[in-house]
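@channel sequence for tomorrow's demo:
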Amino acid sequence: MIEVKKPQNLQNSDDDYIRLDNLLKFSGLVDTGGQAKFVIQNGEVKVNGEICTQRGKKLRSGDTVEYNNEILEVTFN
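structure tokens (generated this afternoon):
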């Protein structure tokens, strides 16, 4: 399992979340936001074990994302 931390430029002090498309992009699992949109809308990504087609899905600490035989766990410090 890969642990992904939210990039500093996306830190929100009020709400700790990252959008699904940004997570895929910043983790390096996809090269571009367009590719993230494509794989999410095609049902290739699971969030917490269920297929998710919402690219703007807000992920919070403890959520897991599965794509291309990789599992990411979201954590915030």
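heads up for whoever presents: The domain at 2-6+15-75 is CATH 3.10.290.10 (Structural Genomics Hypothetical 15.5 Kd Protein In mrcA-pckA Intergenic Region; Chain A).
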